[in-house]
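User: I'm curious whether this sequence folds into something compact or stays loose and floppy. Could you predict its structure so I can see for myself?
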Amino acid sequence: MHQLKNEISFYLDQNLKLEVKGDWQVFPVAVRGVDVVGFRFFRTHTLLRRTIADGYRKKVKKIKKDWQEMTTSQIINGLMSYTGWMKYADCHGLHKKYITDQIKMIAKVTCLNSGIKKPVI
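Assistant: Here's the prediction. I'll summarize afterward.
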């Protein structure tokens, strides 16, 4: 890996006038995964970045608690954005745990009240 890094650094320097960041490191992908664009990629699966999963939990709890005071867009956009994230990750358990019958009912009522024909969840 170190030899490849040296070859890549030389190529970038000579041909593209670019430098590799000085504090680069090789880390165990099997344990930490590769953290890119909101996901942690492992060899066998993909997870949401922890901060995004935490944001999802907070959003669902807020909707559950304050949904009657929230606007339609706050509810629908919040649920849709995280549903989109989870579509590309292996987090069925996270989704199942937090999208309860109560949240499904809130989404359905919000959609019907705003003229949206199909609930988001």
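Summary: The two ends are 44 Å apart (CA to CA). The beta strands are 34-36, 39-41, 46-48.
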